[in-house]
Amino acid sequence: MNSPQHILFLEDDDITNYYTQFLLKDLGCTAKVHYATNGLEALAYLKECVQQQTWPDLILVDINMPVLDGFGFLQQYEQHHATTLDSTRIYMLTSSEHPRDRERSRSFPCVTGYLTKPFDREKWIACTSQPDQDLGLKKQA
């Protein structure tokens, strides 16, 4: 994957969103970035994107959000958007290092990787330049 042109970032923390904006600008990212603070906002945005045929090529999803959390978003995404947006890459981006959350993320075929916060230059490179790299979803032996 080359540098994405359209990113959906699901995160309810304003500080994390501000930091991500700063980081992406610092990295020279010129993508259109939409921030949603919960899964329902993100689903509404995706509905608009599908109508306009301008869907994101990268989605970063936090697990713990109000209204509809990251897993609820993924369930709805797979039911309504997975076939339309089959080229979209989805990464979990969360502070949770709990094995249960990683395992649950693995259960969604649409999820490409599992990254822990903070989001940084190395994680940006991993999810944009090295898409075949194991990004936290392989089972540990």
Determine the mean pLDDT: 88
How many runs of DSSP E, i.e. beta strands? 5
Question: Unreliable segments (pLDDT under 50, ≥5 consecutive)?
Answer: none
Specify the number of helices.
Answer: 5
Shape: globular
Question: What order do the strands of the largest sheet run in, or round the barrel if closed?
Answer: 2-1-3-4-5
Order of helices and strands: EHEHEHEHEH
Strand content: 15-25%
The structure class reads alpha/beta
Cα(first) to Cα(last) distance is 28 Å
Main sheet properties: 5 strands, parallel
Radius of gyration: 14 Å
Tell me roughly what share of residues is in helical segments.
25-40%
How is this fold's topology laid out?
Blueprint: E1 6-10, H1 14-26, E2 32-36, H2 39-52, E3 58-61, H3 70-80, E4 89-94, H4 99-106, E5 111-116, H5 121-129
Parallel strand pairs: 1-2, 1-3, 3-4, 4-5
Molecular structure report:
This protein has 141 residues and is α/β, with parallel strands linked by helices. Helix content is 39%, strand content 18%. The protein contains 5 helices and 5 strands. It has helices at 14-26, 39-52, 70-80, 99-106, 121-129; strands spanning 6-10, 32-36, 58-61, 89-94, 111-116. A 5-stranded parallel beta sheet has the order 2-1-3-4-5, with helices on one face. Helix 3 (70-80) links the parallel strand 3 (58-61) and strand 4 (89-94). Helix 2 (39-52) runs parallel beside helix 3 (70-80). The longest helix is centred in the N-terminal third of the chain and has 14 residues, at 39-52. The protein is globular and about 35 Å long.
